[in-house]
Amino acid sequence: MNIAVCIKQTPDTTTRIQVADGGGEIVDDGIQWIISPYDEFAIEEALKLTEANGGEVTIVSMGPARVEKTIREALAMGAQKAIRIDCESIPNDPGVTAKVLAEVLRGRGFDLIFTGRQAIDGDQAQVPGRLAHLLDWACVSVVIDLAIDGDKGTALREVEGGSERVHFTMPAVIGANRHLNEPRYRNMRGIMKAKRIPIEVVQVDAPAPQLEITSYSYPPQKGERKLFENGASDVAEVVRLLREEAQVI
Amino acid sequence: MILIISDIQEGKLRSVNAEVYTAAVALGKETGQPVATVLLGASGLKELAATAGNYGVEKAIVVEDAGLAPFSPDAYAAAIAHVIRETGASVVLMGATFTGKDVMPRVAQHLDVALVQDVINVRDEGGLVFTRPMYAGKVHADVRVQTSPALATIRPKSYKPAEQAADVAVEPMSVSVPAAKVQVVAYEGSSNGKLDVTEADIIVSGGRGMQGADKWGMLEELADLLGAATGCSRPVSDDGWRPHEEHIGQTGKTVSPDLYIACGISGAIQHVAGVSSSKFIVAVNKDPEAPIFKVADYGIVGDVFDVVPVITEEIRKVKG
Questions:
Q1: Cβ separation B302–A11 shorter than 8 A
Q2: Strand (E) positions, chain A?
Q3: For the segment B169-218, what is each residue's pLDDT rounded down to a tens digit?
Q4: Is the terminal CB of chain B with fewer CB neighbours within 10 Å at N or C?
Q5: Do B298 and A242 touch (CB under 8 A)?
Q6: Domain edges within chain B
Q7: What's the CATH architecture for B2-172?
Q8: CB contact under 8 A, A225 and B298
């Protein structure tokens, strides 16, 4: 079973995201880059499946040269191959990403493609569904449990207040959620091995974006904050304010 | 035409539909466009159409086809794409539920157009502008699309439902439904029909400061009193004190309730991002320097085990 895992380099979750003056872009400087956390569950699931069934895991990521550091971190978990799709900056139109991924992955003999349920920067959650449509494959996303049996699969996906049990046909694009598994730690042996794996760099002509982010801003600041320092004895006043001023209860 | 894809689960309209109808009717007035909704399923949809009328939607397109049960996101997407082409809709909206966010990217790729997910505000400024949170809510982005129709999912709790009666014209439509590659065979509710945090008006949430799974009774009591959902921070779900679907934050759920009550939550940046679009935040924490107080409208410095029972008692008093 040969599996591609599409990963995205994103800012670490602890990053205080800064909007550039004028609101035109997000400031890139000083960001610590990581594998988007949902993608680690995708990598782990792919590794487990190939360990059980044979085959190879190929890490695929789109972006400039700086993305190779993140690809190596993914390889250090145990993947065998890697592709970087070269572009000046990672697209913020998921339609572009899906089309480019489809073009690069089509015809390479993959049986399964994993992604994260969404990347934690754009939070779009569009690539798995779009990619599957372009390949004419099945897609199940936000997956918390997965079993594959020949040309069929069963998954549990998270939904409001519970989960859905889903049957699907192979090949498939699977969007991994937290709790799908416990991603392994990168050990020194894996890190050393990953350094020697060549990263295939692919050039593609990206299609034109269909959406434009015209400005970024911080969430609007709310009214004055009130701090009550006397614990339980201030509660009656807080409840009165919630009812009369805020009118939320 | 502005077309809303009604989100139906277990034969019922989800609560988010009223919010999306409201957003669509307002946008229809702003842009001078008629507003219609489409209901898709195997049967029994006509009775649901009247609900759309309560929020000012004037037309309900009903697509009943045996091929739409059990629910299949790819079969639905194909059927929706067909309805969009047939109606020539210029704007298509759906609630940003797990279903909406799963189906609409497929619809967008059917039509090869842009989709804006998790929109919290849409308006006409010489072309539609969609505002959506990014980085789990650390920043907001204004987005314009260059393709038509404009597709968007609307984040639950972003619009207040506004009732305004309209006569709904029900119009059946038949579509060709392709064979499904993916089928939902069962819904497994894991929290006894409790409200999901993404749909709740009020959330009572607990963090590490709650000290253990056995201490949640007092938060559940407060939640029950308020008709609220219970939520938690990441360490709490990681340690298995609470089920993972209650985890709120950057790698969990982002929420927009009217009132968020944070108990014993310090306020790590990932958690704060996930609650930043709450309309009102109350925090209880014994550490006056806890970062949660920087985002709380009302902060109460004190031990959660002293403060929370008094909150419950006081609310019980005012609620009579």
A1: no
A2: 3-7, 9-11, 33-35, 57-63, 81-86, 112-116, 138-149, 152-159, 162-169, 172-176, 199-203, 211-217, 226-228
A3: 999 999 999 999 999 999 987 655 678 999 999 999 999 999 999 999 99
A4: C
A5: yes
A6: 2-172, 202-319
A7: 3-Layer(aba) Sandwich (3.40)
A8: yes
